[in-house]
Amino acid sequence: MGVLMSRRQTVEQVQKVSLAVSAFKDGLRERPSSKRKAEAWGGQRGPLEHVVQEVQEEEERPEAAGPSQAQREESRAHRAAWERLRDGRGVEPEEFDRARRFTPPAFVRPTRGLHDDEPLEIGLEQREQVASDEVCEICEVWTAESLFPCRVCTRVYHDGCLRRMGYLHSSSTVEVTETAHTETGWSCYCCDNLNLLLTEEEMYSLMETFQQCKIIPETCLTLDNFLHYKHVVHKRHVEKPMSEEQEEQAALQFSALDPDKKGHVEWSDFLSHESIVLLQRLRPQNSLLRLLTAKERERARATFLSLSPDGQGLVSESECRRAQRTWFRKHQKEAPSCNVSISHVGPMSESSPASSGSSKSQEKTLLAAEQEEPSRLVDWQTFLKENVLYILAARPNSAAIHLKPLA
To answer: Can you give the pTM of this predicted structure?
Structure first.
């Protein structure tokens, strides 16, 4: 039923609408500039947006003094790099042809659950039958043998779709096709980037550290840069300088991140290393166990059972440490596997520091020391907790060792 309105009520309603329209027009004329508007809405942005905004404002300050064209282009490049770091998109090639590429999916950083830190029981005898997806993650089309599975998650891809996304280049196509269907396997672009494991708060902490240490995203780091960064971060958290032993460990980590001995660490390897170190510092082992995929849990079971053939469910601490080093090793066509079942563990590269001649001699020394000292026995749950960080750190396809095991 309709509502009858008197003439007086109608006039009052029209007057109210007129006043509202006039106020709206006045507001448009008096609207603040874009910069003031950004400041007004700054409180509603996430912490990562604040870091990017600070970097943008810092880079825009010298612009008033009349920087050169090259400086402006460099400033824009740095700003874009910070935005890609915030969004978890990784390195975007300069020759990225958007007209001929698929649009990358929007990435939403994970969040911590209320019960993430509670104990998590992963049974040793509870085997998991993991099957890869049937259709390409990008185009959602099934074409049987031409799909390449990820060795970490259940996603599968076409090599053509990966190229159109900008995640696969001609130089790495052969490597993907040769390893994707082997026991070594290949990590997809989601699993290859350890930075995608960080929550927004954790990423904010990492970006803040980069900014304070003057680290420019997507740039390589020399040994001096790496050690300076490690000194600053250590003093920031411990409030005292690094010892000589700690500096030596940092130098060994740099060598592990530079397997080809190029004298610098690639940005993607440095970012993955710092991401896994941050997870090690901020998250308990129970929370880290929840990051493992079914495929990773199965490889860990197979490795543990190969080290405990008698079925007692216990392995020595020395074997546990040896397993930590094998997560980063790959098959070699001309070289047989070592006594640990490498087919069930992470990637290995004979060119990596862990496989070099000097490292082999160090490993022999470690094995001799382990045989001399009585070793404690480790059960399945302890084995999994002590290896979880190295299992996660072995995800990237790079030959670099992103978390060097302690001697």
So the answer is: 0.71
